[in-house]
Structure formats: C-alpha cells, structure tokens
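Lecture notes, unit on binding sites. The following record was shown on slide 14. It pairs a sequence with adenosine-5'-diphosphate.
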Amino acid sequence: MARIVMKFGGTSVGDLDRIRRVARLVASEAKQGNEVAVVVSAMSGETNRLVAMADDLSADSKLGGSIDDEYDAIVASGEQVTTGLLAIALRRLGITARSWQGWQLPLTTDGAHAVARIADINTDEISPSLSDGTVGVVAGFQGISPTGRIATLGRGGSDTSAVALAVALKADRCDIYTDVDGIYTTDPRIVPEARRLNRIAFEEMLELASLGAKVLQTRSVELAMNNNLPIRVLTSFTEDASENPGTLVCHEDETMEERVVSGVAYSRDEARITLMRLSDEPGIVARVCRAMAEANIIVDMIVQGRSAKKDVANLTFTVGKRDLDKAITALNNSREMIGFEGLKHDGNVCKVSIVGIGMRSHTGVAQTMFEALAERNINVQVIATSEIKISVLIDAEYTELAVRALHNAFNLAEAS
Ligand code: ADP
Ligand code: ASP
Ligand code: MG
C-alpha cells in the first residue's frame, strides 16, 4: 500500500466523459489499497474565460483601486467546480471521496495575489481522512492568504499544488497526468518528431519549464528537486498502465550527462526594450534595474552595446510581455534618473533555448546552435547563457522554424 498524489490538468478534466475516465484511473489506484489524494485543475478553457472576465471589468475602471485580491476570488472558482464533479464521479464508482478547497485544508500562501507562493499545507484533517480510505479531491491553484483571502498560485499552479501536497503528505509517488504522455525533447505540438524522454534531470526540467515549456510549472519542479521527490509525468488518455510509462523527473545520473542537449523550449511571453543614448558609465544598468524592480518587473536578458558616439551606450533588455506597458511607464517616469534619450520596444519577439546538463562537459554546442540559426537566416537579437542552457531572442515570426532547426541540429528525434 502506498500514498499517492495524482494530478489532472485542464484537458484531462475537460468534459464529463473525461472526468469519468479520470475517476476510473483514480478508482483503480484506490482499489489496490492505496491512499489517494487527487489534485485537479479547472476544466480546459475555464481559467482563461474567468481571467478574461476579470480583465474586462478591471479595464472598465477609471477610478483606480486595487483589484488584485478579487481576481483571485474569480479565477480560483474553476478548480472548485472540478473537485465536486470528480468527487461525484468517484462516488458513482463506489469509492468514498470528498472535495477539499484550498481554504479547507488549509493551504496557506504568502500575500502576493495572482502569483502567491505556498507557505504551508496543514494535513491534520486530510491525512487521517485518506488513511480511513476516503479519496481526497483537492482544488489545485488555490490557497488562502495571511489575511484569509483566496489566493492563486500563478498560471499552471496546480502542478505546484500537487507537488507541495505530495511533500506535505509524505507521499510515495506524485503522478502528474496531462494531455501528452510525458516530457518531450520539445513541444510535440510544434515538432511532431519530438521524442518522449524516459527520464529527465530536475535541473534540466527546471530550465525547460522556466524557459517556456508549459508542461510543468517551474515552481513545482523546484519544490520536487528541493525535497528529492521524483515526479512522473504521464497521459490521462489511456487507462492501460502498461502503455503509459511517462517520464520520470528525478536527480541526474551518468547516462543523462551523455546527452549534450536534452530539449528545446520557446517562450512567446517576452518583450524587448532598448534604451538609447545612455551615458556609458558604471551604474547605468543598476539604475535601469532599480526602476524595474520598484515597478515589480522582472528583467531577463540584458545586453549593453556601444552607440556610434563616444561614451554613449544603448541598453537592450527583455521583460515579460504582460509587463511591457508597465515597464515603459516606469522607465519614462525615471527618465531623468536613468538618463536615456530614446526608447524603442518590440512585443513581437520569442526566446528560444536549448537545455542539457551535458553542455557542462561538451564543447561546440554554441557553434552548432548559431550555425543552425544562420543557415535559416534567423537573426539573433540577444543571447543569454548559463551552465546548462543557451537562449536567443529572435523575431516571433521565426519561432517554429528556429525550434525545428535546433531540434534537428542536435538530432533530438533520435534516441541517444
Ligand atoms: P495541463 O492542462 O495538463 O496542466 P498543460 O497544457 O499545462 O497541461 O501542459 C501540457 C502541454 O505542454 C502539452 O500539451 C504540450 O503542448 C506542452 N509542452 C511544451 N513543451 C513540452 C515538452 N517539452 N514536453 C511535453 N509537453 C510540452
Ligand atoms: N487552472 C489554472 C490555469 O489554467 C491552474 C492550472 O491548470 O494549473 O492556469
Ligand atoms: Mg499545466
């Protein structure tokens, strides 16, 4: 007998038939004598619908006033519906089950609405209930803030709910069921020849997730890595476990290092800003970063270039596309403090990255990457590297071409 956390994403619970299938998957684990907690997302499309309504009404307001906390109250409702539906479907299969909302556990978070971080999960009630044989159906994505308000964990946050719950419950397994049958060498929607990996190292998955591979929320991988909890990613579309090996996200082993590049990720959520004609002196980057930090904006890639004039520089950096307008306003408000003469921006850019722990010990990776892009005439605007990744910023129009070119250049479709 084991204690298991199973998580089902939006597509997996997208309609009642799919919820029935999920119930059968859960029932099969429960009938084998396992203690099962299930974390569910909102039905597919539901969170987008709720976000759009919240945004629409917020945009109406000329009066100002924070709406952040009510956004969470709205968007968290999608998960609540799914918990009830799945609990009913389970009961119809003869399984004892009940729903748990974030506040009922309670799962407490910090105060940051819409991007809250989990502070603690109280398992005093749910743990004995699982031991008594009741399947717990827990709403992903949500918790309560220190002031008792509903708080949500950022898009894709149900993955993090599941991993955190597995850690808190000391679960033996954390299985993330989704609409693909594992982690692929790149997004299979863009490259049909992409290959499922049997295993991937936490660090690689962390990079892939933070660089845009939406299959797992970045913080879920971070949490699993820090708590040494392997995650299995598998599909909810089959009920035959023997056909569903999935991918194990776990600590690296030697065979993983033989792979130079494990995957290609892309993110269209980027925007580029260039500040022109800054005085080229120590401290200018710090001043720009200060203006962005004060506006709560994360700066990602940065490159400083000389301008034609002596002692004058241009500074290019990227921010999240959602933050572009806020960033421009903040920069214009700090124009004197920073001391720039012109500002250009472009929201039509994409960050494409290659990731692999083998890059630590292999040479020639950058050369292969840049040659592959050059052969397709793809211009690189900004570059960022770390020990196990290289990212480039390119025109969004070439996203698919670049992802395919890199997937091909590193022979990722072939088993290593
Ligand atoms: P869920 O609703 O189950 O949380 P998501 O839509 O958040 O599912 O994540 C699954 C999707 O992630 C897949 O449909 C796939 O298009 C995308 N994806 C992006 N990169 C990868 C990758 N490297 N491996 C697998 N899926 C990926
Ligand atoms: N429903 C939320 C979202 O769509 C959380 C999740 O599915 O993980 O972002
Ligand atoms: Mg997801």
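Take-home: Residues 9, 156, 159, 214 surround magnesium ion (ligand 3) (CB under 6 Å).
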